[in-house]
Backbone:
């Protein structure tokens, strides 16, 4: 009797093993899940899903078709990512980046070392070799800003133009610009002066008591500026 029970147990175990082994090929035939693709810069930033208002503005201001406007937004998002990688790679030699063309299809990256050109081109951009790194341009602009006195009516605008590799000063006269450059002790070779008679001005002044609206649903008022002596009240 014991022998018969042992034989039955072995038969059951053999049958179970056969079932398990029979199931293995089927399990092995199941394909692994496909690897997920990382979202593009345009997808991450939502540039591939522009709002109707953004599309209208691009069509109106830049005279683009809707397809061109959509392509431009995607290209600029992707160019920003490529330019950021190249800036990190170039370090102190980086001198700026910009896009060109109606759809911003062409990315240009500037460097102070011609040896960087192959790496820039491999990174998906056109290489331009210039004299002054971006950090030096930023430093020069900061000095010009700090040297401005009063309301800066004679030299109201100062900005970095990476395309020209210079700091631009917009002034009422060249003499006014030269005075500012001398006061800031900045190398005049990296400053581009533009004489401009127009003066920037605020198009609207925020006044206490004026109404403003929150999300188009709620109305509130601008607070009144109160002073007590020399301190804000």
Residues:
């Amino acid at each position: 009797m014991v022998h018969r029970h042992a034989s039955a147990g072995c038969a059951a175990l053999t049958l179970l093993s056969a079932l398990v082994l029979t199931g293995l090929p089927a399990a092995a035939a199941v394909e692994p899940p496909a690897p997920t693709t990382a979202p593009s810069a345009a997808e991450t930033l939502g540039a591939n899903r522009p709002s109707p208002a953004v599309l209208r503005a691009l069509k109106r201001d830049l005279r683009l078709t809707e397809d061109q406007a959509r392509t431009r937004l995607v290209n600029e998002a992707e160019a920003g990512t490529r330019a950021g990688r190249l800036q990190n790679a170039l370090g102190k030699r980086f001198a700026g980046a910009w896009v060109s063309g109606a759809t911003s299809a062409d990315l240009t990256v500037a460097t102070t070392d011609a040896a960087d050109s192959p790496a820039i081109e491999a990174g998906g951009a056109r290489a331009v070799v210039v004299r002054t790194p971006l950090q030096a341009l930023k430093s020069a602009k900061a000095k010009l800003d700090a040297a401005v006195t009063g309301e800066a009516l004679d030299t109201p605008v100062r900005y970095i133009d990476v395309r020209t590799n210079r700091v631009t000063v917009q002034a009422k006269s060249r003499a006014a610009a030269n005075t500012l450059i001398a006061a800031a002790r900045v190398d005049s070779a990296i400053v581009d002066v533009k004489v401009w008679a127009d003066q920037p001005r605020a198009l609207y002044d925020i006044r206490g008591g004026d109404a403003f609206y929150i999300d188009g649903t709620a109305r509130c008022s601008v607070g009144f500026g109160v002073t007590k002596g020399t301190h804000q009240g």
Notes: Helices lie at 2-28, 41-45, 52-61, 66-90, 117-122, 134-147, 174-184.
